[in-house]
Design goal:
The protein has 670 residues and is of the alpha/beta class. It contains 23 helices and eight strands.
Length: 670
């Protein structure tokens, strides 16, 4: 079963050199505060003194420590390199090929040197790991040793060193496949233990946490019962167990006390002080327990790991296909432009097979803009904005001159309607700009793979966008001119005999509406008769004129009734003002209802449909043909900064994933 751990070791070797991968490997992550005895625990398990020591942060890079119970083949490989048969335990670093370390003081020096290379010499930290493989006759086990938790920066350390260490630890312990080995000192309150706080945060149930209690030999004898409760799992809620250890003190280290002597003293310490539970604690028990836990954990996580590798491989292959360097540049550019045009048009027309269910896109967004932007703004314009009763009175009197104003003053009405319709021009023309902007933005809603491929080449991307921008700009002025001209036509030429306008008048007057409801068939028949082919045009106008006079007459009576009759000249003017105010409002609303459909339809016809028809041709003429004429320039397919690095990184990760697959398949064959 130790082969399972060695298989995971191979995966650690593979992914240690790969940046920013998401492969969650089953491994033991060692977490503890500075001076918690974390390094001493690892050295006791290995049986060698090899870790850097000193004040402040000593471990400044993740150390992937792989203990391997060596085989005859391992011994043979070592002898081939050293030709030294006296070596019984040795170490190798992944960053130094074909080099064997049998002096563990040199191992310590190499860790320090490599740490300075990766993290710098200013006591900063790095997330780049050091992989150390220790060959021993004891057992196979693997750990990830992380920097000790600290609160204050020391010397030249960054001010945010605590935050950096926390982020590095969290990066490892948050992985569901990580087993957390939390180192806790016996002489501090477990409730304040930083390692247990982190473990509880990312493993609330304690299902993948094991606690190691250090410094049992320096506590007060009066707290012995509390320590028994601690070691028996009554205080710290972790499910993988709590194991106490006694490691070398600084005095032992200064006196060159061997690790074998320390292990013997540890056994005697537990037998003397905790006889009831002595067989459940100590470094040997810890090693066997960790090995059992890791093997069981690997067995459980292998199916998930296999699925994770499979998904990663599929994703990488797809991404690399997009990042692939084109074999034939001309064909590549032409096909990409064709696909971009197709995806753009399908996005506008709603023919995309991958239509989103989360957000509006393309043509649907344009329709939504019509409702939310244009229609609301357009219909919110006050028909009588900036038109007071006094202004209406002046218009009526000034356009009558020395004559008395008629029942309907057409000259005054034309002036007022023209003035009010002017307020519809700005929202109508601004809507053209809104649709134009939305049509341009739709390019960012095309198929994401195509968009990624386009953005990979800055010059090509700019050319495509410029082509679309120019195409939209080409029609913009003409459409605005057309819409403005259409509104101006309504400003200059009023048609007060239009049936829709007359119905607006009918609905605006209580007297008229009441009469209309009582004799609506007569109105409908008259209007239908007026539009039939049995009358000449003069007869038709005559019929409609009669209807108009009848409606105006009823409106006049309605207003007159509300004012109490024509008692004086002032009342007569008031009737005229109110009557023409109603005419102006109704005609404005009649024209606005017409424009509410006309403006979007005009834009759809002259801008949207135009772009859909011409975009493909424009791409060929303005993008593809210049590339064909001057392919040697190379600028069109020059990749943006970072793409080559991204491709290399993904290729590197794919190689690592394939190696990982091979290792897992070897496990399945065993």
């Amino acid at each position: 079963m130790e082969s399972l751990i060695q298989a995971i070791n191979k995966l650690q070797d593979v992914f240690a050199v790969v940046k920013d991968h998401s492969i969650d490997l089953p491994q033991i992550v060692v977490v503890g505060s500075q001076s918690s005895g974390k390094s001493s625990v690892l050295e006791s398990l290995v049986g060698k003194s090899f870790l850097p020591r000193g004040t402040g942060i000593v471990t400044r890079a993740p150390l992937i420590l792989q203990m391997v119970k060596y085989t005859n083949d391992d011994m043979k490989s070592m002898l081939d390199l050293t030709n030294n048969e006296n070596i019984t335990e040795w170490a190798c670093f992944s960053h130094i090929e074909n080099t064997v370390f049998h002096d563990f003081d040199e191992v310590r020096e190499e860790i320090e040197k490599r740490t300075d290379v990766l993290a710098g010499e200013n006591k900063g930290i790095t997330d780049k790991p050091i992989v150390l493989k220790v060959y021993t006759s004891s057992y196979t086990l693997t750990f990830v040793d992380l920097p000790g938790i600290t609160k204050l920066p020391v010397g030249n350390q960054p001010a945010d060193i605590e935050e950096q260490i926390q982020q590095l630890i969290v990066k490892h312990v948050r992985q569901p496949n990580a087993i957390i080995l939390a180192v806790v000192t016996a002489n501090t309150d477990p409730a304040t233990s930083e390692s247990l706080k982190i473990a509880k945060q990312w493993d609330p149930e304690g299902a993948r946490t094991i606690a190691v209690v250090t410094k049992l030999d320096i506590i007060d004898k009066g707290t012995k019962s509390d320590i028994v409760d601690l070691l028996c799992g009554k205080i710290i809620p972790v499910k993988l167990g709590i194991i106490g250890v006694v490691n070398r003190s600084q005095k032992d280290i200064d006196q060159n006390k061997t690790l074998d002597e320390t292990l013997n003293n540890e056994t005697e310490f537990f037998r003397t002080n905790y006889p009831e539970i002595c067989k459940m604690h100590g470094n040997k028990v810890l090693a066997n327990t960790l090995q059992d836990i890791l093997i069981k954990h690997i067995k459980i996580t292998i199916p998930t790991l296999y699925k994770n590798l499979e998904d990663t491989k599929t994703k990488l292959e797809s991404e690399l296909k997009t990042l692939k360097t084109p074999d034939c540049e001309k064909t590549f550019v032409l096909e990409l432009l064709n696909d971009i045009n197709k995806s753009y048009c399908e996005t506008v027309t709603g023919d995309r097979k991958d239509a989103s269910n989360e957000t509006l896109m393309g043509g649907a967004k344009i329709v939504n803009v019509i409702q939310d932007n244009f229609t609301k703004k357009f219909m919110a314009v006050n028909p009588l904005y900036n038109l007071s009763d006094k202004q209406i009175e002046n218009y009526l009197l000034n356009t009558s001159g020395i004559k008395k104003s008629s029942l309907v003053n057409h000259k005054a009405l034309e002036i007022m309607v023209s003035k009010q319709l002017e307020y519809l021009i700005e929202p109508a023309l601004s809507f053209v700009d809104v649709v134009r902007e939305e049509m341009f933005n739709i390019l960012d809603s095309i198929d994401q793979k195509l968009l990624n491929e386009l953005q990979r080449f800055p010059e090509l991307n700019n050319n495509v966008r410029s082509t679309l921008d120019n195409l939209l700009e080409m029609k913009l002025k003409n459409i605005k001119k057309s819409i403005k001209s259409h509104i101006k036509t309504h400003q200059k030429f009023l048609n007060t005999t239009n049936p829709n306008y007359l119905l607006q008048l009918v609905n605006s007057s209580i007297e008229c509406s009441s009469s209309f409801i009582n004799s609506k068939n007569t109105y409908y028949n008259n209007l239908r008769t007026a539009n039939s082919t049995f009358f000449s045009s003069e007869q038709t106008y005559s019929v409609i004129d009669n209807i108009e006079r009848e409606i105006v007459s009823k409106m006049y009576k309605d207003i007159l009734s509300s004012l109490g009759g024509l008692n004086d000249y002032k009342n007569e003017i008031n009737v005229q003002v109110r009557l023409h105010k109603q005419f102006t409002r109704c005609y404005f609303e009649f024209i606005r209802n017409t424009l509410r459909d006309f403006v979007p339809n005009r834009i759809n016809h002259k801008l949207v449909n135009f772009v859909l028809k011409k975009f493909d041709k424009k791409l060929k003429v303005e993008v593809f043909m210049p590339f064909i004429d001057n392919p040697s320039s190379g600028g069109m397919l020059a990749e943006k900064e970072g793409v080559a690095d991204e491709r290399n990184q993904k290729e590197e990760l794919l190689i690592a994933v394939n190696k990982a697959f091979k290792s897992l398949k070897e496990i399945q064959m065993q």
